[in-house]
Design goal:
3 domains, FAD/NAD(P)-binding domain, Flavocytochrome C3, Chain A, domain 1, alpha/beta, globular, 5-stranded parallel sheet, Methane Monooxygenase Hydroxylase, Chain G, domain 1, 19 strands, 4-stranded mixed sheet
Amino acid sequence: MTMQNLHGRPVIIGGGIAGLMTALHLAPEPVVLVSKTALGGEASSMLAQGGIAASLGSDDSPDLHLADTLAAGDGLCDEMAARRVVEAAPQAIEHLARLGAAFDRTPDGTFLLGLEAAHSRRRIVHAGGDATGRELIRALAAAVRRTPSIAILEGVEVRRLIVEDGEIAGVLAVGDGNATTLSTSRVVLATGGIGGLFDHTTNPLGSFGQGLALAARAGAELADLEFVQFHPTALDGPRRPMPLVSEAVRGEGAILVDERGRRFLADTPGAELAPRDVVARAVWRQLVAGHRVFLDARRCLGPRFAERFPAIASLCREAGIDPAAEPIPVRPAAHYHMGGVAVDAEGRSSLRGLWACGEVARTGLHGANRLASNSLIEAVTSAACVAASIAAASPGAHRRLKPAIVPPRPDTSRIRPTASRALGIERDGETLAEAARALEPIAFGHDGASDPALVALMITIASLHREESRGSHFRTDFSQRDARSRSLRLTMDETFEAAAIVSDTVSDPVALLDRRTSP
C-alpha cells in the first residue's frame, strides 16, 4: 500500500491502548494508525502494572466507583464525564476479554479483583499479576494486525498538525529520515503523557507531551495542565524509566518505612492506601529530610511475593534486591498527567477535526488527582466515544498540502532539570517564575528542545495561576485550598503572553489568565 492510498483516512497518532482501541472501534472504516515505534513499544500502557478499574464485585456498583473517583479528584472532576466512564467500565472489561486479553480469574472463572489506594471496594482487574498493560497491548496489537481496514505506520513520528482555514487539513510526519504529509480532516491524538520531562519518571523517556505540543501549536485549548501525579513507589535506582512498584503491593499490606524501620504513615488516614498525592508528599518529605524510604512486604507477602508479583520481583532481582527477605528502596516519580487537550464527551477538541483520547486528553474524569487504575479504563471507554464521533463526521475534501518545514526531532535533555526543579511534588511561585523565564525563549525557538519546552512552559504557567494546593498540585506558598477555584483552559498564545508578563515582573499573569477559568 502506498502513502497516496492513505490520504483522506482518519489518522490516529499513538500505538498504546487508546490508539489501538480507537482504531479497532472504527473498523471497518479505513484508518491510519501512526506509531513512532513498534505498536506499544514506547507506550506507558505497556508498563502499567496495577490494573484496570471496574465495579464487577457483588458488593460494588458504578455509583460507589463514581464516589471514589470524585473524592480522589478533589473537587475538579466533571461528574457527568466520570459517570459515563464508570458505568461503561464493566462492559469494557468483557469486551477486552473477548478481544483476547487474558485477565486473572478465580477458580470458578470470575475476575480476580484487587484493592488499590482510595478505592472502597476490590475492583481492580489484573492480568499476569502485575503485567496488565503488557497483556492488553499484546491482545489489542494482535487484533489490530488482524484488521485489514487499519493501515499501520510504525517507526513514523508526527511532528506537526497541518491547519488550514481554522481546521485540521493533514499531518506532517517523519519516518526513516524522510518527511511526508498525509491529507486528512480527522486526527486523533493518543500520544500518552509527559513523564519524560522529569528526571524521575515511570514513563517512557520519549513521553514528554508530544501530543500536547502538536495540539497547542495547532491552536487547540489545553486544560488542567498543572495536575501531574507522582507515583509514591518507584524502585529507587539508576534505571530509566524507573520500574514501578505497583500500588497493589500496598493493597496486599506492604508498609512504607524509613531506614530505621519507622512506619511514618501510621497516623495518616488511610495510611499506605491514602490518595496518591498524600502518600507521594509524605515520601518526598522523608527524602528531603535526609531519610531513605522502603516498601516492606516481608510480613504480608514474604516468600509469596514472586508468585503474586512476578514482574516486580524480577525487576527487584535485577537491582540486587530480594523483596521476600528485604525492603524495597522507593521514591516518588512522575507517573500520570491529569491535564491534557480539552475535549468534550465525544473526545472533540476546540479545533475542528482534532480529537484526543487517553492520557493526552483532559476529559474531566480525573480532576485534580487520578484514582488508581482509572487511566486504562478511561482510555478503553473513551476510545469507543471518539470512534463513534469520527465515524459520524464528514471526511471533508482532499486538500493539496503546501510544503512545510520539518521540525527537528524532539530532545528533552535541556528541559528535564528545569521541569524537575519547578514542577515537582512541591512547588512555589518564585521557582515557577524562574522556570517560566528560562523556558519561554526555548519554547519560542526552532530546535529539538522547543516542543518539550513549550509543554513544560504551559504546565508552569498553569501552576503559577493556581494559587492554592489541591490534589496533585501543591504550592508551599499557597498551602490551602481555594473554594472558588475552577479548571483553567489555556492556549499557546496565552501561554506566551503570560510568560512575557512573568519576564517583565511588573504585570500580573494570574489576572491575565483569570478570564480563562471555566465554571
